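>> received
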Amino acid sequence: MACSARILVTAWCFFVGISVSVLGWQGLVYGLPPPCESQIYCTGDLLKQVQLARLFSDDKHFVDMPLRESPELVLKKFQQLVNVTPGGILSKEQLQQFVSSSFSDPGQEFEQWEPQDWTSSPQILAKISDQKLQAWASDLNARWKSLGRKIKDDVRTHPMFYSQIYVPHPLMVPGGRFIEYYYWDSYWVIEGLLLSEMAVTAKGMIQNFLYLVERYGHIPNGGRVYYLRRSQPPFLTLMMDAYLAHANDTEFLRENIHLLEVEYEFWQRNRSVSLTVGDRNHTLNYYSVQIGEPRPESYSKDWELVTDLNEDARQELWAELKSAAESGWDFSSRWFLSWPPPLPAKLKDTKARAVVPVDLNAFLCKTEHLLASFYRILGDTTKAAQFQAALERRLESVQAVFWNDAAGVWLDFNLLKKQPNPAFYPSNLAPLWTDCFSDQAAAERAVQYLEGSTVLSYKNGLPTSLARTGEQWDLPNAWPPLQHMVIAGLAKSSSSRAKEIAFALAQNWIRTNFALYKKYQAMFEKYNVDGDGKPGTGGEYQVQEGFGWTNGVVLQLLDLYGDRLTSGSPSNPFGAWIVAACIFLLNLK
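>> returned
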């Protein structure tokens, strides 16, 4: 039976010392729809039998395979096999033969393409003083050619044969197993393309996302039908801003600003929650994917996770996993109910829909600021005033709900625990990057927050958390977009101390990436902060090479600090500060 829970929770929040009411948090809706309607790629017996038989080492392989025949005919042939098989469960050999005869290898949906706007000598190279880093940046610039893809027109005319979602313009993929576009990855890819003077390709990627908004009303997580009913962090308006900073293309903005607003409204309409702090009501946003069944791309893992749960609990956990995946942080202790350490935490504890995240609201804060600015540029004062008012409301809400004066930083708020999450995550500093704060002392407080933790002691990058859970968005991994957000946020502040830390973090990250590039001749999606540095680890799959957002972040840091960064052996620039602090404490005794 379908039902929904609307919960009103009022509690004294001892952690921040305020009375908090939460209204409008949507509980689980049972009878949830599947990830999409495809009986091959998203739901149904064929998908279940193939994935649970583990024909491939990676579940994603199967759901990326194009069909050789119409889905109706494939399903009919499969059902005929089921009907003549005792018990209806095909053997692994039968399934292998069926898949081989009915499907093609992944990647057949692309045609050969090379970006016409690529240049071997973008101006950014001249800004880099270290010759080794300059040569490396030249190599990264050349890698755009290997990451570029163009989807065949046959995907448009015969979409039922593919899991790939058609878009009209060429694009950049992350790399490795990720052979389709991904939403939030593409922001850092686009920034990198613009620094490589590939504005035409960057604009085409934005046009693809606008096409998706026009078609679906939102941007799916990635370019596959099994991602259709979840999104990723909303960066479309920030992509437009990045493009406009490099190209005086006001007409492009004028033609498409309504679609930027459509995407913004998707988040306001489908991903909002109301909280009352004191006597003030605040509307903020969270990740909430009310979709059941296992994720097709990780089907067997999702199934294994729920073997001891009843059907209702299974559907609830699967919806939570998709909500966490929508955040881009799949998976992390950040979404576990059992925090902070040393409490035991595991993937089964995922309650992403109970978290109101700092960074998501910081991104939407920037979106509101940009939409107000864009409408002013276009001369629409009414719309500009509307989004300026939304921005001011958001600023007030971010301060009231997320800012924790004792910690000196913004903290995620948990609706079930009715309190903030005190754990360290780089996302706690996202408002610095998006200018989503009013108190100019925030940067200084953020510096004190960083220095008061152990995170600056890691010489290979800023860790994603201080919890070792085995999940990829936790210790010991460091992720490129999080490095960039923290570094860029500190770098643009008026605090000289914040600027010093920003540069030190950038230097560490560049040295780590460069050292591993020399060793492996590869760029990775994530890196390990332990020891001497190595590719990232943990999670549901092996670390991937490529890699779109990694390359984009490196180019952004080289653009920001190219005259100062060096390729020398890694050292800990925070070490002197730590030694000095120890000497100071010893002298006090």
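>> The longest strand covers residues 18-26.
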